[in-house]
Design brief:
Length: 177
């Protein structure tokens, strides 16, 4: 059977699915960022009903549940208009979250997510897509292999992150017009 990836826009009826799959995927990949593996500072600021209600009301934010053959396997969040340095909000789209559960890695889902985001960005006339990626770990090579380049450096700004793990790159993919 062919793997069919679908991006289901978040609705109040799917908040709980988004919270569960997002939390699980995040914890599978990023517990090493947190002392004693306690990701609750991030989870509580990203995956709860109050946050989702606020984000869903924001016309600049788009939230999706990533599905593979009808099963929820990840989450996607991006900001349609997001300033980056010399690029205006009208020129740049920011990818805030791509979290895919570990058991679904290597199935081409990540590439399809990036393609979906890029197509959306091109539809609305963006010059680039940008995101933050950990300086350590497999995501960096994934983004580099998919046309992103390192643009600058940043870090996770939550106070309890393990100091040695907080460093990130700002990655950009310039879009052709």
């Amino acid at each position: 059977m062919k793997n069919i990836v679908h991006f289901e826009p978040l609705t109040p009826g799917t908040y709980q699915d988004y919270i569960e799959v997002g939390t699980r995927a995040y914890d599978q990949h990023y517990l090493h960022l947190w002392p004693q593996g306690d990701s609750s500072p991030y989870i509580s600021s990203s995956f709860n009903l109050k946050v989702l209600e606020k984000e869903e009301c924001d016309k600049n934010t788009l939230l999706y549940i990533i599905k593979l053959n009808g099963e929820a396997v990840g989450v996607l969040k991006f900001t349609l208009n997001a300033i980056l340095d010399i690029f205006t909000a009208e020129e740049a789209l920011y990818v805030d979250k791509i979290y895919i559960q570990k058991e679904y890695s290597g199935k081409g889902i990540g590439k399809k997510v990036l393609r979906f985001v890029q197509l959306r960005a091109e539809e609305i006339g963006k010059k680039l897509v940008w995101l933050d990626a950990m300086q350590k770990g497999p995501a960096l090579n994934f983004y580099l292999n998919n046309g992103f380049e390192i643009y600058g450096e940043t870090e996770i700004r939550l106070p309890t992150v393990v100091e040695a793990e907080k460093h990130m790159y700002i990655m950009v993919k310039r879009l052709s017009k």
